[in-house]
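ESCALATION

Customer reports they have been waiting on this structure for their group meeting. Please prioritize. Original submission:
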Amino acid sequence: MSQNSDVILQDVRNFTVKVYGRDPDERLLGTGVIISRTGLVATCAHVLRQGGIDPQTGRRAVVAVYLPTRRGRPGSRRPAWVASHFSATDDDLVCLQMEGPLPLPYDRVAILGGAADSQWNPFMSYGFRRLENYLGGWARGRILGEVDPPEGHSLLLDPVQLESQHIEAGMSGAPVLDVARNLVVGVVSETWLSGPSAKDRDTAWAVNADVVRFTPLSVALREEPLPLLRAEQPVADPRLTRRSLPPTSDRLDAAPLALPEWVGRQRVLDALDRATSEGERLVAGLIGFGGEGKTSIARRWIDSRPTEAGQDRPWVFWWSFVERASANDFLEAALEFVSGGQIAADEFTDGRERAETVAALLGQRRFIFVLDGLEAMQEQTGDQYGSVISSDLRDFLTFFATPGHKSFCLITSRAPLADLVAYVTYEHIDVTALSVESGRHLLDRLGVHGSDSALDQVVRDWGGHALTLSLIAAYLVKRFGGDVRRVSSLPPPDPTLPRDEMVRRMLREYDTCLSGTERTLLIRFSVFRTTVTDRALRTVLPELPEAPDLRARDAESWESVRETALGHLVSARIIRRDTGGKFGMHPLIRDFYQLQAPDDAARRALHTAAKHYYLGIAAEDTSATETVEALIPVVEAVHHACRSGSYEEGCSLIHDRLYLGERGLMTRELNAYETVLSCFSDLFPRGEFRREPLVRAPESRAWVLHEVATCLQLLGRLWEAVAVMRRAARAFKAIGHWHEAGISCQNQAELHLSLGSLPAAAEVIEECFTLAERADDREDELVAQTLRGALAHYRGKPEVAAQAFAEALRLACEFTPVPALYSSSGVRYAEHLRGEGAFDEARRVLETNLGICRQAGWRADEAASLIGLGDLALDQGDTQTARGHYDEAFDIARGITRRDVLIGALLARCRWAAVIGQAAAHRGDAEQALIMAGNGGYRLAEIEIRLFLAGLYYQLHDNSAAWDEISRAEEAALEIGYHWGQAAAQALSDRMRGD
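Update from on-call: job pushed to the front of the queue and completed.
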């Protein structure tokens, strides 16, 4: 396919909002779309009328608009009033004026165009329709074109007819994005309720966006298609990628065995064939409810592909996130596979660098990646529903969707892939109910017999849901020899129930016809959250008392169970066997049987047995461990220890076996912060970090909170990290560990400074002084002084900053082995000196700090020191030296976990480019840094990036865009009290006005 990386559409979720009534407790009325940076929102007039609000009353027609959380920006609810409506015609559109902070960011505003040139083009939309437990969903379809107005209506512009299966109540006011033109050409207004005949059932209409021209409002509409945005290309070290070799074989051990009774799904298989053969799609998502058969379809497609031989054959890599929900584990395994075992995960200290290297290797030969059950890695609730939680995994997926290779990725998930929907290289494929004919064939092949009409009726009654039909078949075959007439013994189907509840109801019936051995096997097997071998099953079966016939330990008894109970359950598709010979369960079936243990004591005993199994296969000595994979048995042991109620043991396993105490094996050495965080989640009720950890020892609780906050910080989840770090400090204070409390408090202050929360930082810094005094620790006081100096520097108070740094330097000389400010303290001190014009002293401080950091292995502080030295060289006009320092810092930043350091390195390259007149060539660096700063909440960095972009736009004679970036930077700087941001914005403004 084309190597052009311009593949990203407007992201409709960024500018789609919820419209509520005026009172906080009023129901959701509909959807709206932001159409200007001044806060205008377009929605349908009937949306307001249905809420009892008359648009004719103008400013008195008050509603509430909710802007959902997007890209690190928190959600906000704002009052709004009707700024424009059509009183003389029936055009179903109103424009609301939002209040609150304005102007809005560019990416939260839709770019509009008229619908006249959109006939037959595909479209996508997003609106707030309810779908079982989900409020908010996607719609796709085709724009059929303009049609005559309905009878009795007078319209300025004809309505636009749409064809879509997904438009339902709640989507009125949703944007219609013409995918071919990349313009929002209308808002959804109504859908056709076809009734039982299903005639024209996929018909809907939209209001033409061109009607906005007839309002007195100043809203721009674009005539030409909007260019696509450029996707970021992965960058990898060529010295590593040159070492790669082809894999020795496909990796399919986690894939299920192919179903012998395959039926239907030809539409989905054909769609996948088209996606790969046409060459324009790099990623496809099979999206549907649990139990629809997504995993089986993926396996069928892999098996049905034409056999290819030779150098260009695609190598298949299958990964199940249902079994291994870890981005660290996935990237480690993927790196080993695509490099042919030539590149080890421990050669990288950062998950993003692994993701980039794997993505870069996709271009060396053809691969097919199957990522099964991605919902385990996606947000399942709230505004961010469908977004990938792990930033490293999200980066990998977007790299895969970026042209430059001939590989293909197939993903199965219950949730839409929100991070990929805007990529034109991504294909969303709905996996829905089986057709009546396919459902009938499935029942027949599973052993159900009867008339075609009776089988068809079962399929209709139960909605064609594949897993439910399989369970019905297993029930009928087990209890009635497969007689379809006995389906009447089941509770009547309720179409209003969610799919998950339908499955649970069917499982309750199926459970009644199981033998004691079969039921016990399922209950005990459900304790495992991953696929397991025979040995694991035998661990949980013999010793427990529920089924006397399973107590025998000898191999003959186990083989009997294996051939009878286990064999039947596999044949009935209740238990699944993968290609590697391991056994697993569908998550819905596993969840059901986990709740069937006789009591909590029995459930805890099962987890205890599973814990002993994993500890039995785990290495006793993990000190020489080089991969996360080798530590997985310990990770599973932690999980089962906690589920058995042994939280203290689980905490000890994390500290002693995963961390190796102060060494930090799993964190500082393997950088598996996400895996560690998942272990810590087992120590919290329902895995929620906002609750208190369940370990009893106060010292352990405080340590857990501190480590959780550190993981969150290094994973870029800064706001979450602040809250947990605050609790860690309180926990340490409660037990009189003043030094440890001081460290947590210092980290909290660092987070506030990074986030630009300067008022909050001031309060926390004062607490740092109090704790340093309580601990009688001069080094803690030193750090507090440097934090005070940094805050004063940011606020434009040089005298206070100078005094604080002078006091810190005195403490360093009198009470520490190194008579200098080093690490982050040295970087802050040099930044202050540079701001005061003391360039030589700043250089001396940074050179000293660089040596100390290199000797200690503090890579993040080493990079920051190099950036500072580069800035000083640039101040003196030495662009060559500056570039050398910046490049070295960038290389370090790409190899560590700290996103703030990578943002700083990218910004440094931008500053250099601006000085030598090549700013335009580094616009990509600025945009990448801006995305990371926005996602992470780094406000100071965001201000600096926007000022760079303002200067770039000014050079390109785009004064409107330049002023826009200046205003946004200045507004943010004023909001947080950032002196240097305000000064830089004012200087650039004066320069532009002077020209």
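Sent to customer with the following note: The two ends are 45 Å apart (CA to CA).
Escalation resolved.
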